[in-house]
Amino acid sequence: MIAERKVVLFYPPYDGPALGPPLCLLSLASPLIQAGFSVTIIDAAIVPDWEERILREVKDALSLGISLLTGPMIRGAVRAARAVKAVQPELPIVFGGWHPTLLPDQTLRERDVDAVVRGQGEQTLLEIVTRISDGKSYSDVAGVSSKPNGLATHSPERRIALLDDLPTPAFELADFDAYERVSGVRKLPYASSVGCPYACNYCTDMVFYKRRFNALAPERVVAEVVDLVERYRIEEVAMLDSNLPVDWRRALTIARGFLQSAVRFRWTFQASTDFLCRMSDDDVRLLAESGVTHMGFGTESTSEDVLRLMNKRHQRVNEMYETARKAALGGIHVTFNLIFGYPGETETDRIETIRTMSDIAREFWNVSFSPNIFTPYPGIPIWPQLRELGLREPESLREWAELPLGRNILPWLQGEELQRLRRMLQFFLLNNQIRKATKDHARLRQALRKMLGAPLRWRIRANQYSFPWELWVAQKFERFATKRSLLTGQVLSTDTRKVC
Predict the structure, then answer these.
(1) Domain region containing 33
(2) Whether residues 117 and 195 fall in one domain
(3) What is the number of alpha carbons within 13 Å of residue 362 lying toward its C-beta?
(4) CA 180 distance to own-chain centroid
(5) How many angstroms separate the most distant Cα atoms in the chain?
(6) Nearest-CA neighbor of 10 among 74, 89, 90, 105?
(7) Do 131 and 117 touch, CB atoms closer than 8 A?
(8) What is the pLDDT of residues 410-468, one digit of tens each?
């Protein structure tokens, strides 16, 4: 017997440090709470015994909702669903998030998944839970895929709601103290917009949001963020927007509002270089004064041929230089994301990218890099081409779970070519680390860095990477970043064995 109108929401374990409370679940919880349901959120990032906790909480619940992304999160989601169905086989289990939205049929083939919420989920999940509470079918709710008779059925798409028409996420459910204990910082994830107008061939964002930019009014952003920072003693706000300055005047209005509030905090965001370059030097200084400490950019390559293959015609190399220059004026750190192994890329393209990025890093102190091997996520536009090149698309949830960012499954990048790329990137990253030597390091390390600097620069110019004595020496003394968060610039990995 159900004791109350209760919903349990679960965020499975994921690779990397905790960014903060899962904004997706807080957003789903808010309409449910307004409608009189109680909501329990379980985040595996701060709940080590999450399976036991789920089993306790679902005993008097109407439903279990799980939000997940492609990759290792799938394993935790499937494990949770299986555990719950073993003891409560009649409890509806609903999957949502990017991966189930992009592959609803495949997701429903998982035995313990009853329904998939496709796309924007706040209103859809509320309607599902209301139907369950009333003892009615939810298979015809807009935006739902389900299997009422064992066969997958898909209701019509739900009309996208403007973000300003949705309630503020239920931040009151977040245990910021617990996140501070695991991460060392009181950080707030917040989204002022979703969507990006560009159609990059490798990106799931354009598939998920269909290139629509859906943004909160800047006045609401300022009011909500300032209130949350004060209420929860937040030190840093991570803006989860796909491309925050699509409307760059709106971005400046937000920054100006933060500055005028007199509430001080750091904030970070992602952008594309062309939008940032539309801002003046003074505009970027304003971002810095308002608290911006880091910006991430999906630059991906400096080869015009590769950028054309990626459908990134908006991306220009001169704007990468200009972005670094403008950010440096305000003391803002930037991370340039790089993608290697893209179909059609040649070694000449890789050499060009590494040399150009090394030149940018030499000229501007504030630049770091996060190189990644091309990862073929579900639904991206170039899957027909990838199949022709011999790449087998995963056929089940469990196979997609083995596809974390950076794992190489590309048939055209193997053997000696892959090893050479890894070696190139090790030298590239070490050179960038040496460039950032500061006076507060011990004299021995300063001398070591000075000794390595010239040969590293020569190798990159000459494209010579055999007999890597510099790497052998450096790895005894140095730990350099091989992966960084594009959102915050935080170091995610220092394992040189796993470059690409």
Answers:
(1) 6-137
(2) no
(3) 14
(4) 20
(5) 73
(6) 74
(7) no
(8) 999 999 999 999 999 988 988 888 777 554 455 656 676 777 888 888 988 899 988 88
